[in-house]
Each structure stands twice: as structure tokens, then as C-alpha cells.
Amino acid sequence: MSSDLPLLIHNASIPQPYGSFVLGDVYVQNGIIQAIAAELNAADLSVSRQPIKEIDATGLTLLPGVIDPQVHFREPGFEYKEDLFTASCACARGGVTSFLEMPNTRPLTITQAALDDKLKRAAEKCLVNYGFFIGATAEILPDLLEANPVCGIKIFMGSMHGALLIDEESLLDQIFSQGSRLIAVHAENQARIQARRQLFAGSTDPAVHSQIQDNQAALEATQLALKLSQKYHRRLHILHMSTAEEAELLRQEKPAWVTAEVTPQHLLLNTSAYETIGNLAQMNPPLRSPHDNEVLWQALKDGVIDFIATDHAPHTLEEKMKGIPKSVPASTTEQPADGSPVILLEPAIIPSGMPGVETSLALMLTQAMQGRCTVAQVANWMSTAVAKAYRIPNKGQIAIGYDADLVLVDLNTYRTVRREDQLTKCGWSSFEGWNLTGWAVTTIVGGQIVFDHGKLNTSVRGQPLRFD
User: Fold this and answer.
1) Domains plus CATH for the chain?
2) pTM for the full model?
């Protein structure tokens, strides 16, 4: 494994913008790409006879490290599902060198103090680079506009409860009208979800989730967010777009300051997955129809959708299989003699979400090898375009002067997704059994090898991302 020695990567296949590849060498020193050429000699590059770590990349493809712009790593508050260390290990295995994490932890990331706590935890635990969103609440706190460093403001328009749910247009209008920070929205209409939840009450079929939180619920929320963005010319990002209707809306009406993302699961899974993997298919927004898959793919290739995120949101296998009893205090029930609170249990609730950082790159590269897109497009969707949208300097490209966040992948070998191989703490994948290529062989963070041929270097620590 590497320390912080200079690196010289030999004979890597590097994708070019229009689908071709070139063989070349890449030299890294002090965490920065210093030289790229058809052939570089270690003896010519060595300074004061400093040793250089050389990597033979023959037969491998070199890509910019994946920047995953939407993850839920559960720390603090839910570390039994995942924590920053286990999640960053999973990132390293999946070729993810940077992530942007969401605010629905415990406590919520809605203040500078909560943000500082996450940054401290990440500095101590994360093998890869990190950035965090700040969450919006109905009480518009000063930190929403002032806390730093943050990649943007996260708004849950639906599929949420408690302080982070903002489903009133007047409150949304206030947030859009103040400041200039990027606003990222989970776009589902909470009122429609609640009404349809009553309509389907009593159903135990997991597939009903896609009917309760239907396409119309997503479309209505995206329409509202787009309207407010246009009203204030406010930078807007639409998270995990899932429906054909939303894609067509943006195709017709997408200002230059609006971006959108899609997850691999919304491209590759649909409602038929409920029949094969049951509760493991449940996420928010839900899986849609094969028609939605096709329209989303086309929108991604046309640039209507800008990039890819995983929405990595792990739950334990026990939670996904059995559901979670929802506890609520019973204020009108007689208290026990010992004074302890009375708890009533509502019917089991299946938690929404699935892990994704370990499989996302291999899933997309497998699609590229099947001819659905190019390797260069995958690199753009999973790194370059993300860095551009979030204004992350010096990341997302294999270029001189850029940070050496890189991944060498094998496009010639297929391996099956197996539960026992997962490094995420939850220990499962909705893509179990899929045969994929493009797995990470070597992952490099800031010029240091963090994952190499199946082994982690847990001494590596990532850095906080900057947002210009």
C-alpha cells in the first residue's frame, strides 16, 4: 500500500471525450497530477532521489474518482446502520473518492455546530473526501445561509416527517427568496402522498409503495420547485429524478441554473423488482415503470439530466425484511406506576432506501460495455459534471494541476455482486446476483492508494471538499 510517496501510473487506458482511449502514464506528486504523457520515466521524475511508487496499469482503465453527490451515511445517530468509516470503506471499494452527505442524521445538520461535529468526525474516520449539506426547516435559521463549508441547502418537500419536512409553498418561497446557495430538493408532493396512503391503507404488498408515491406526486413537487427557482433565478438541483414526466418537463423548461440527477436504480430497476427482491426494492422516490427507465436514460444521454448519484441509504437487513414498528407516545393513556412513558406500536413500516456506493460505478460501466453509453460519458456523469455543478475546484478530471483522486478499473473481468463482499455496514445490495464489470482495482485519494486489489489502506484520510 502507498503512503504519501509520489505515484507513477504506467500504461493506463484513458478515455477521451468522444469515446476513444489513449494509452498513457500519469505522474502524481503531493496529491496533484503533475504530468500526463505517452511515456514517463521514474528516473527523470525523481527529485533528490526520492522513491516513487510505480503502478503497472496494463489492461486497466484510468478514470477520475467518482464524486457521489447524494448519500446518507447515518452518522451521528444511526451508526448501527452505517457510519462514516464503514461508508468510506465502501466508497473506496466502489471507486468513490468524494461524497456529499445529507442532513437527516440525529441531531439534524441544521446548525454550524452540527456541521462542525460532522466535519470533525469525518476528519477522524473518512478514507475519502467529504462534504455536507445543511438542512432547511420551517424555522428558517440564520445558519441556513451562513454555515460553512456546505455544498448546498437540502429541502425535503415530501417523504419526510418532523422538522425537515417543508411542504408549504409559502415556506418554500421564503427559502428560495433568501441568499444564493444551491438548493437541492427531494421533490415529492407530501399532501398527495398522504391522501394516497389512506387510499391504499391495509395493503401489505411492497409494490404498493410505487402507487402511493406515484409519478404525479413527483411531478407536482418538481413543478413547484422549478416555478420558485424561475421566480428568484435561484440555483436549483433536483435530486434522484425518477419519472418520465419530470424528465419531459425539464426537456421543455430547464433554465441554465437548474440541474438534475438520476440514480442507477432508477435507470436499471423498475416495479418488477418487487417480485424478485421484495422490500429491498423500496426507496424514495419509488421505483417506476420500464417506460420511466427508458425516458430517464434518454434524458441522461441528452443532457437533460446532468449526472448520477446513488442516494446510498442503508438500513439493516432485519429492518428491511420485517419493517420498523413506529413508536408514538400515548398522551391520553394512563401512565404506569413507575412513571415511564406509555408507547403504542403502530403497524410495521418498511424503511425506504438501499445502499449504492459499492456498485454504482460497476453498474454504469457494465452498461457502457453493453453499448448503452460510453465510458467517457460515465466518467462525466459520475465525476466531471458533479464537480462542475457543485463548484468543487480541481476535481473530476484527469488533468495536470487537478487533485489525484483516481480509480483504475478492470473492464475485462466480470464478477457477481455478493452479499458477503459488501463493506457497507448493512451488508446487502439490491443488485445481489448481478454480473458486473468495471470494478475498482485501485482507488487513489489525494495521491494515496486507499484500495488496491481487494485490500484497504485504512490509514488514509480524505479531506473536506471546497465549494467555490
Assistant:
1) 7-63+397-456 (2.30.40.10), 65-319+351-389 (3.20.20.140), 325-350 (no CATH)
2) 0.94
